[in-house]
């Protein structure tokens, strides 16, 4: 039974202002995508990684990641779709076609390149333990307001009941397949599964699983992961 991680990495990542797809942006010399794939395999739980790459960069991504797979596993690279959800769908279809014993599927953003392997292992363990869908989360430190279109506060949700969601999000393969076949639209895989009526469970995330989106995030990552802390 294989655990397969899907990595949608086909976005242009323009907010980083690097002039290249975000997944290929280096942090201290190593591309985000390479680091993300390394972390998945370092968890010791993932046998296959399926990357949805920018269509023009499939060969480059393959060259950068192919050697990271452990014995018996592999990195698969295919061109992504026009939206993130299309990229995940294509990667999922590929996984179910070429890795027939896929039992658990993770969906992991390349932008969360520094997710500790322990978080990844925790998600897999929770799915193995019987949950259909599992997401890593952090408590919310800031007060969150709901506002209307004019920016006027409508309500203040109880912070104690809110969580910040990270990746990898883990699913029983059949649960994710059924959700993608349902025709429901959602920007987040757990939200999609949630809308099919499946309970989504949470496990502890980690601050290092932050999403690298802006030049500020990149600067934080460069500072945090320079030298021996990795
Ligand atoms: O743009 P955003 O940061 O929300 O993208 C989230 C993730 O989805 C990124 O890792 C990005 O590369 C990926 N993506 C994709 N295919 C697209 C658009 C985004 O795989 N067409």
From TrEMBL:
Molecular-function GO terms, alphabetical: 2-C-methyl-D-erythritol 4-phosphate cytidylyltransferase activity
Protein name, UniProt field: 2-C-methyl-D-erythritol 4-phosphate cytidylyltransferase
One Pfam entry name: IspD
Site for Transition state stabilizer, residues: 15, 22
Ubl conjugation keyword on record: no
Residues marked Positions MEP for the nucleophilic attack (site): 159, 211
Biological process, per Gene Ontology: isopentenyl diphosphate biosynthetic process, methylerythritol 4-phosphate pathway
The keyword DNA damage appears for this protein: no
Listed pathway(s): Isoprenoid biosynthesis; isopentenyl diphosphate biosynthesis via DXP pathway; isopentenyl diphosphate from 1-deoxy-D-xylulose 5-phosphate: step 2/6
Task performed by this protein: Catalyzes the formation of 4-diphosphocytidyl-2-C-methyl-D-erythritol from CTP and 2-C-methyl-D-erythritol 4-phosphate (MEP).
Family: Belongs to the IspD/TarI cytidylyltransferase family. IspD subfamily.
Lineage: Bacteria, Bacillati, Actinomycetota, Actinomycetes, Pseudonocardiales
InterPro entries: IspD, IspD/TarI, IspD/TarI_cytidylyltransf_bact, ISPD_synthase_CS, Nucleotide-diphossugar_trans
Transmembrane segments: none
NCBIfam families to which the protein is assigned, alphabetical: ispD (TIGR00453)
Catalysis: reaction(s): 2-C-methyl-D-erythritol 4-phosphate + CTP + H(+) = 4-CDP-2-C-methyl-D-erythritol + diphosphate
Cited HAMAP family: IspD
Domain of life of the source: Bacteria
Organism: Lentzea albidocapillata
Signal peptide: none
EC number(s) on file: 2.7.7.60
Record PROSITE patterns: ISPD
